[in-house]
Amino acid sequence: MAFTSPDGRTSTSLSEINVTPLVDVMLVLLVIFMVTTPIIQSGIEVNLPRTRHVKTFHPRQQYVISIDRNDNLYFMTQPININRLVERLNVEIGQHSGPEGENREPVYLRADGDVRFAVVVKVMDVLREGGFTNIQIVTHPIIDKSTS
What we know:
alpha/beta; Nucleotidyltransferase, domain 5; 5-stranded mixed sheet; elongated
């Protein structure tokens, strides 16, 4: 596109986009997300008990209830009251119930090894009363050094 100046000369405008600042901003955002993503995905810090037989577990794909060493209850990564737990699970899962009204979706329970057994049993009891019978307890595998 050409412009005519008051003295009669024709000049062209600069129509190219300078992408260097855009690339700089995108690289900074990429570094920020790369640094913060592992922090966000770590979730609630729980020292899980160790067992010999452990199934594969992907917390991002499941419904996870965590109990930390101070007996605080979390649904995914958010603190929750035990009286609201079943209600929140029903909302999240969307009422996928089985033939007898029991929920087929697995609910994973992560409890710190130092949590009193009575607390774990109470959470499991509340879940069962709410129709959640597929409760899986999450553990870490025992690494047997004698076989390696």
